[in-house]
Design goal:
Chain B: Pfam families: BPD_transp_1. The complex is a heterodimer of chains A (about 280) and B (about 300). Chain A has about 280 residues and is an all-alpha fold. Chain A is built from 13 helices and no strands. The chains are: A mainly alpha (about 280), B mainly alpha (about 300).
Chain lengths: ~280, ~300
């Protein structure tokens, strides 16, 4: 009895200790964000950074944020990113749903071989394709448009793979029942299977969104026009232009670029973390 | 008798559906058209075109065949090997720091009862922000005079490195950024797999009188071997492709003094600031082969089923 009590007490102390450690390191991890916001609200940080660092600036001001919005480039970049990302997600997820369904429920010649081809695309990184794709889009005069960013999203081996795995778990009998009723393959897909695919569609949208939103090297290669810059491109060009001058302005800009994603993350955290874990556990 | 005829009817129906399905075989290819159009145009064609280009001298308009000269020139170029060295150095330290660190935190989060979800969300936060924005912030965080890191180091009496302004420490600045950004991902993957270890194993160990730490060493760690292999290889493949953050912090040539120019940045510099398409293609092929080898090992190790 006595031993049990002390065991419980020990457990409690250990639990409290763990909690404190996790909290301290967690706060340490987000310190850069906290500092970013603090410096962003400091007007004088553009001339001299506040030193020693403070949590709340001496003279808080929204001056830097005013400039970020007045200038309009960030909003423009957001619009560009939104157009590119939504289109990429749309075509990537649609194409992968069709292919994933066919690889799961279809019976046709060469299914295995074609699926191996899809898996092989998982091994092909962007770098060796940069120059030929650049030349390809150049030859059809589509550089400095959004097409080169959107069209290659048509193929994602990872999305097809995740989608096939999901449909594999759904019973074939649904298909047979629907076809005894005389429905064709497309009707069966759209009426029976697609409505059941909600969870995997959500995962696919989240992953495709993250990939497209954060894409950097390829957009850097095909977009020179400042008017067309996506958010990462605008941030990088601002950063390379100004270096570590204009601390206040840079941090205000960084804050505004991070904030919408963080808010989205806080709302969808459960699904985002699940999606990441799923894509991680299953390969790539 | 009646039963039999119903059975026969059903069987005939099923047969009909089956034979119908055979006729519809072609329809399935329609489902695959968009994806395979993408594969042909954006995967197969560029991979072969890139291989062809690596045997040509090319600036995008004029081309002529020069055999293996591009490969020779890349493999004898100091700046290429410097880029390889930088890429490997940053990658190796990022991985050997982040995986154990992430695993330890995942274990602690997994064993705590209070606020598990809160910590998950908190620790994953750096990973959801784009690495470009993160690099932008870290240029200030690691600033030698005004940054918070050196402020803390100075306050506790440690030397304050020049970080990104000094070629001898700039790679460490990138490593710190990379660890900070990646650790959340490692934690999430570890947590998912920690929760998949059957609890019976721990219960049996407890009955045998194993302490918490013993359980961790003899049950948890061996069960996580596959996860570590997966993280090691995906981390390594990602590290070989590092570009975004070094471009933001040091430009295409990886300043200061090319000390943070990675292979990706080398390719970008030669291909898109110098327009030496042949040289850049040869370099991408060398990198591609490296990545291919590691991806192949990954698929073998994680036993992805087809």
């Amino acid at each position: 009895m006595k031993a049990g009590l002390s065991y419980r007490k020990r457990e409690q102390i250990a639990g409290g200790f763990k909690f404190v450690i996790l909290l301290v390191f967690g706060l340490l991890l987000i310190t850069p964000f906290v500092w970013m916001v603090s410096v962003g609200f400091d007007r004088t940080a553009n001339v001299t950074m506040p030193f020693p660092p403070k949590l709340v600036p001496k003279h808080p001001s929204s001056f830097n944020f005013g400039i970020v919005f007045e200038n309009g480039s960030l909003i423009k970049a957001y619009l560009n990113s939104a157009i590119v990302t939504v289109s990429s997600v749309l075509i990537g997820v649609s194409a992968s749903l069709l292919a994933g369904y066919a690889f799961s429920k279809g019976r046709f010649k060469g299914k295995k071989v074609l699926f191996v081809v899809v898996l092989c695309t998982l091994m092909i990184p962007m770098e060796p394709r940069l120059i030929p794709l650049y030349k390809l889009f150049n030859s059809v005069h589509l550089l400095n448009t959004f097409w080169p960013l959107v069209l290659p999203s048509l193929i994602s081996g990872m999305l097809i793979f995740l989608c096939k795995q999901f449909f594999d778990q759904l019973p074939d009998t649904l298909r047979e029942a629907s076809q005894i009723d005389g429905a064709g393959e497309f009707t069966t897909f759209f009426r029976i299977y697609l409505p059941l695919a909600g969870p995997i569609v959500a995962t696919m949208i989240i992953l495709a969104f993250i990939w497209s939103w954060n894409d950097f090297m390829w957009p850097l290669v095909v977009l020179n026009d400042k008017e067309l810059q996506t958010v990462p491109l605008y941030l990088a060009s601002f950063s390379l232009e100004n270096g570590t001058r204009l601390g206040g302005l840079t941090m205000a800009l960084a804050t505004m670029s991070v904030l919408p994603i963080v808010i989205l993350y806080l709302f969808l955290q459960k699904y985002i973390i699940q999606s990441i874990a799923l894509s991680g556990v299953k390969g790539e | 008798m009646a039963n039999n005829s119903i059975e026969l009817n059903v069987r005939m129906e099923v047969e009909k559906v089956r034979s119908k399905r055979k006729d519809w075989g072609l329809k399935w290819y329609v489902f695959l058209i968009p994806s395979f159009l993408g594969i042909l145009l954006f995967m197969v064609y560029p991979i072969f075109e890139s291989l062809r280009l690596s045997f040509y001298q090319s600036n995008g308009t004029v081309e002529h065949y020069i055999g293996l000269a591009n490969f020779k020139s890349v493999l004898t170029s100091n700046s290429f090997w410097n880029a390889v060295w930088n890429t490997f150095f940053i990658g190796i330290f990022q991985i050997i720091i982040t995986i154990p660190l992430g695993f330890i935190f995942a274990s602690i989060i997994n064993s705590t009862k209070r606020g598990q979800n809160f910590f998950k969300v908190l620790y994953f936060l750096p990973n959801v922000t784009s690495i470009v924005a993160a690099a932008m912030i870290f240029a200030f965080v690691l600033h030698p005079e005004m940054g918070i890191v050196n402020y803390v180091l100075h306050a506790i009496g440690l030397p304050t490195p020049g970080w990104l302004s000094d070629p001898s420490t700039s790679k460490w600045a990138v490593i710190i950024l990379a660890v900070w950004h990646w650790v959340g991902f490692v934690i999430i993957i570890c947590l998912a797999n920690l929760q998949a270890i059957p609890s019976e194993m721990y219960e049996a160990a407890k009955i045998d009188g194993a302490s918490g730490l013993q359980q961790w060493f003899f049950i948890t760690i061996p069960n996580m071997a596959g996860t570590f292999a997966f993280l090691l290889i995906t981390g390594w493949i990602g590290a070989l492709q590092r570009f975004n953050e070094v471009y933001v912090l040091g430009g295409p040539n990886g300043s200061p003094a090319r000390s943070i120019q990675t292979m990706g940045a080398f390719i970008y510099e030669r291909g898109f600031t110098g327009f030496e398409f042949g040289i850049a293609s040869a370099a991408t092929y060398i990198m591609f082969i490296l990545i291919l080898v590691f991806t192949f090992i990954n698929l073998k190790v994680s036993k992805m089923k087809i």
